[in-house]
Amino acid sequence: MGRLLALALARQGHSISLHDAQGPDGAGAAARVAAAMLAPLAESAITEPGVVRMGQHGLTRWPELLAELDAPVYFQQNGTLILWHRQDAGDARRFCGLLEKNRRINPELPALQHLADQELQTAEPALQQRFASGVYLPDEGQLDNRQLLAALHRTLERLGVAMHWHRAIELSDFKPGQAGEPDFVFDCRGLGARGQWPALRGVRGEVVRLHAPEVTLQRPTRLIHPRYPIYIAPKQEHLFVIGATEIESDDMSPASVRSTLELLSAAYTVHPGFAEARILEIATQCRPTLPDNLPAVRWTSERSMEVNGLYRHGFMIAPAMLDIVLQMLDTGDCELARRFDVAVEQAGLQLTQA
To answer: 305 and 279, same structural domain?
Structure first.
């Protein structure tokens, strides 16, 4: 969020300084660990309609944002495939029922496509008839989050943005508007902002990155699981990001054996080629989350703003949050915030209720 905003403002001609407690690779941030799937219909089963609308907005905006960068970023909009084993058919029906209900709420969402037998084989040949049926969600996408972080860094460098890495700071370290101080400060630190936004909490996730030369999947695939839907996001050069776990905890310790076994076992049932994959990384991170699991913008003064609470939808909704902030700066209004049900607060007084 911070890098996208810094880039947009630098392109408008502003002089920008970017401060980060970690380095340019994004280590220590949820953005580096995420799978970066852009799946508003799939996510509609667990989130609010406003977030879904932000996700739809993001599918349009991401190609525009990526086209402005100085390095290529893998972007795919080839839909999402939902699979399940026979014993989980009841859970799959409930999940698909939620998606259908949300399509009635938001008719702009694409229709689910139920696939069976040869239709499923045609959509995903690598499955080799290991599943009897599935559901295809058209138009959904994904990008490579680490390529994006690197491309943003490279573009910010070219634009002359002053970047201060490995410097942990607080909002109170700045006096915007005073001599020698910035005119405006934006705080996009995620959980790093808990000192002044105590409502923030961490929601832990665990992700495995694999290199699997024997596996080729055409699109992100979600597997209905008794405890939680597991996703497999295929990136370039047979890199796969596998995750699902969502634990109400800000524990940053290494992944548990149970979670790792569940993720890897589920991947193996989707494609046996994962048995010979190489584990590149097992990572944990905590998503910055507000009490209602929705993002928010908060003015702390006339010259400082916080953008936070993107939860598990960071890449999906980041373009919408970016456009909300830019609209508020440009017009003083927040029509987009109202359209997307994003809360905007000022000095403790909430102006727009999600």
So the answer is: no
